[in-house]
Structures are given as C-alpha cells and as structure tokens.
Design brief:
Shape: globular
Number of helices: 14
Strand content: under 5%
Structural class: mainly alpha
Helix content: over 70%
Oligomer: single chain
Largest sheet: 3 strands, parallel
Length: 452
C-alpha cells in the first residue's frame, strides 16, 4: 500500500508526467494513430519540462535578489515560501497529505463531471501543497490523522481546486482570447480579485502592452531586451547597496559584484524566454489532446494549468506586477516593524509570480491602471494575511517560513478559524462548502435554461 501511495505521489507531484499521461489518455480516446499518440505525449511531456525549467531559472535568479535585499535592509522575520514550509510539514504529515491529495483529485474530477464547473486542476505541486496545508490545519484542530481527516480534507481540497479556476475563467477568456484553458494556480483568489479591481477602477482602453515607445527606443519592444535592461538596473542597484564584500563572499564566489548582478539579470531574462517556449509547446499539444477527455469522460472540461501559461499574453504587465507587488510587500514590512508585529519579509518568488499574474488579470479588464491596482491589492493580501494564518498552523507557526499564495491563505485561515471552534464546526464548514458549490451549479444551470 505504501509503495502504491509513494508511486501516486511521485506521479501526481510531477506535472510533466501527470499532464503527459492525461494528454496520452485524451489522444487514445480520440483513437489517434499510435505515432500521433507517441508524438503528442512526448511533446506535452517535454513542453512541461521546458516550462518547469524556465520557472526554475527564474526562481534561482531571484534567490540572490532576496539575499541582497535582506542584507541591504538588515531585517529578520518570516519569509513566505510554499516549498520551504511544505518541506518541513511533510516530515510529520506526509502520509495524510498524500491520501488527502488522492481523494481531492477524485472529488475534482467528479465535480467537473457532474457540475457546470468543468475545470480539472493539473498543477501537481500545488495540489500537494494544498493537501499539506489541509492536513496540518485539520490535525491541529484535533481531528487526528485517520480516515475522517483524509475524507474531509479531500472534499475540501477537491472543491477548492474546482471552484478557484471558475472564479478566474471570465478573466482568462479576456487574457487568452478563448475558453480552452483555465488557471490552475494557488493564487487564483488574488487574481480574480485583481481582475475585479481592474474592472471597477481601471481603464481598459490603455493596455500595458500598448505603451508608447519612441522610435529610437523601439528595441525595447523586444521583451528579452527590455527585461534584461530593467532587471539589470535593479540587480546592480541592489548589489551596490548590499556592498561588494557581501555579494562577492556570500553569493558570487568571488566574481565581481557588478558582473554577477548583470549575469543574474540576463539569467532572469533567459528564464522568461524558456517559459514562453514551454507555454507554446504545451498549448499546441495539451488543448487538442484534452478534447478526447472532454468528449468522453468529462464533457466540456478544461485543463487548469500553472501560472506561467499566461505570461506570453502580457509581458509588460509581468514586470509591472512584479515591481508593484514587491514594493507593496516592502512597504508593508516596514509598517510591521513599526507596529512591532511578526515581520513578513516579502518573498521575491511569490511576489514575482503572483504579482505578475495579478497585473495581467487587472490589465485584462482595466488596462495599465487595472494592472497597477490589481497587483497592489494582491500584494497587500499576500503581505498581511500570513500574519493571520500563522496561529492556525499548529507547530508550524514556529517555523521561519509560511504559506505565500492567496489560495492557501484565505481558505487556510477560514478552515483554521473553524477548527478553533471545534471538530463539529470544521466538519460542518467543509460539508457546507461542498454543498454550496453543488447548489450554485444547479442554480446557474437553471438560470441559463431560463435565459435561453
């Protein structure tokens, strides 16, 4: 049993394998030729590896950014990092986490099959992290680590990962210009909020992608060039503030600190280029392959994919969102220092990926103003809500890291508060959440029939 569980976790937490298997299933259901099945499966697998590799390059190039930032400001505190806090938690909650994840995937597929929310969540590491958060909170709420926790946790996770892509889909249609792919990330609540803020307060006519650039600077329209130049300025400024001694002894291994900063900026831009190539490969293969599943197993279903999938649609918004979100996080940190609360140090990776996506969502409905306001609101959420989730994480509240994205923070805080009220409250809350989604689906379907 344990070997089977370990194999399931190994497959499900490797999105490249998981999505390749789903692509293969879709192609087989369409009765494609063996050569087409092999070609589509391998290209999907390779495309996801390219995407993951690009994301890794981006994350690795941001690590020295974070180190120089903390050294320059001499601050200590809690750094939101999903990977770090999950690594700590899995030591104690690993088996329960894996079982919750298995039940959660089943619930997600069942809800996609029998409700109007046709989104199959395919970001494996995100599913694992949500499972881990759920296990930690439920066990800390004295539910134990038996079958009750697994079933309840799976219902909670599967429902959450079905409904959050649905919140984002109206904006995804605007961003991608179609309705074939959904957002499968754990920042979806923040992205939908950013899109709504952009819609209410923005100006759709002035997109981030239509910035007027003088002819003499037309080379800046190339995203690789503009990203390298902008990040180069930022990295060099940070390296100067942190000081050559710190950079050369702690980070660069003796390489001149200015040269090191330039290389990191170029590496960041290279990671972005790799991500864009991976996105192109995935969309070319997974969407057609998914039609087989949509027709046979889960009619009209859509794959919910990881956040970089939208970066090619608004590269200017990506940079705007990152810087706005990070500045908001930094200002929030100074306010926390003044208030003498626990200090949440802005996580560079979280502010990059979530801030970028929030700006893209804000831009889709509110242009440049929407992008800035959307990234600002999302930045405030991921800066301040970690203070509220720490008390409900049991022994993990003593760790030097915590969860970073809105879909951990908002549901996690609500679930934790219910847990504080007792076992019956948390059980009732999870079942009610599941039933609300079912009833909402029925009501919306009836509304659509009436309007027809």
């Amino acid at each position: 049993m344990k070997a089977i569980l370990n194999l399931f976790v190994a497959i499900a937490t490797q999105p490249a394998i998981l999505v390749a298997l789903i692509a293969m299933t879709g192609l087989l259901l369409q009765k494609k030729k063996a050569t087409e099945v092999v070609q589509g499966t391998i290209k999907t697998f390779a495309g996801f590896l390219v995407l993951i590799g690009g994301s890794g390059i981006l994350s690795n190039s941001l690590a020295p950014f974070a180190s120089m930032f903390q050294s320059a400001l001499h601050v200590q505190g809690v750094v939101p990092s999903n990977e770090a806090v999950v690594a700590i938690a899995l030591v104690k909650y690993g088996s329960t986490t894996a079982l919750i994840m298995l039940v959660g995937m089943i619930i997600n597929i069942l809800l996609a099959r029998f409700t109007r929310f046709k989104y199959i969540f395919l970001t494996g590491q995100a599913m694992l992290y949500v499972s881990c958060l759920t296990a930690v909170i439920l066990i800390s709420a004295n539910l134990g680590n038996g079958w009750q926790t697994v079933i309840l946790g799976g219902i909670f996770e599967g429902t959450l990962l079905t409904i959050t892509p649905a919140l984002c889909q109206p904006f995804m249609r605007k961003i991608t210009g179609g309705d074939t792919v959904a957002m499968g990330h754990t920042g979806n609540i923040g992205y939908a909020t950013a899109g709504l803020v952009g819609k209410i307060f923005g100006n759709k006519e002035k997109s981030t992608e239509d910035l007027n650039i003088p002819k003499g600077l037309s080379f800046l329209r190339d995203s690789t060039v503009s990203i390298t130049l902008l990040m180069g300025i930022v990295y060099i400024a940070l390296a100067i503030v942190a000081g050559p001694h710190f950079v050369e002894t702690k980070l660069s291994g003796g390489t001149n600190y200015i040269i090191y900063a330039l290389v990191q900026a170029g590496t960041f831009a290279a990671g972005f280029v790799v991500v864009l190539q991976g996105v192109r490969m995935i969309l070319a293969e997974i969407v057609p392959a998914f039609q087989g599943i949509a027709k046979s197993l889960v009619p009209n279903s859509k794959p919910a994919l990881d956040v970089p999938i939208i970066f090619p649609y608004a590269p200017n918004a990506v940079l705007i969102g990152f810087f706005v979100s990070f500045i908001v996080g930094t200002l929030s940190m100074f306010v926390m220092i003044a208030m003498k609360t626990t200090v949440i140090i802005p996580g560079v990776v979280g502010h990059f990926f979530c801030g970028a996506a929030a700006a893209i969502y804000g831009n889709s409905e509110g242009g440049r103003r929407g992008a800035i306001l959307g990234a600002t609101v999302n930045g405030l959420i991921i800066s301040w809500l970690p203070l509220l989730i720490l008390p409900v994480l049991g022994s993990l509240k003593l760790a030097a890291s915590t969860f970073a994205d809105t879909d951990y923070l908002v549901p996690g805080i609500l679930l934790g508060k219910l847990g504080n009220l007792g076992t019956m409250a948390v059980v009732t809350g999870i079942i009610l959440f599941f039933l609300i989604v079912l009833v909402t689906s029925v009501i919306l379907n009836q509304r659509d029939k009436t309007s027809d």
